[in-house]
Amino acid sequence: MHTRAVIRSSAAVVLASTLAACGSATEHRRADRQTLQAGRTVFIHAGCGGCHTLRAARTHGVIGPNFDTSERLSARQIRNQLNLGIGGMPSFRRRLTGRQEEAVAAFLADAMKHRR
Q: Which domains can be identified in the chain, with CATH numbers?
């Protein structure tokens, strides 16, 4: 499947999970899992793993920070980084939708929070 199509389909999952989050606590947890899975998909297909190591995405990049050992970042910090493209990292402002940014930031922040 083409990368843009995969990213678009992950955005659909994020939207569906957001709408589903209006229900019970079980539905909310399911929506959270769907958002995290969509974020993982965006992380992989947007090429983040080409630069960054992250066990949760099974990537082994060596150019950017290793997210398994780097400082922990909040979802807000990650979204800022995605938009600004600080350091050697390019901006993803025009490459990802807002929902995709939200999903990948949630996924990465969660992975950093739960790393060993």
A: 3-113 (1.10.760.10)
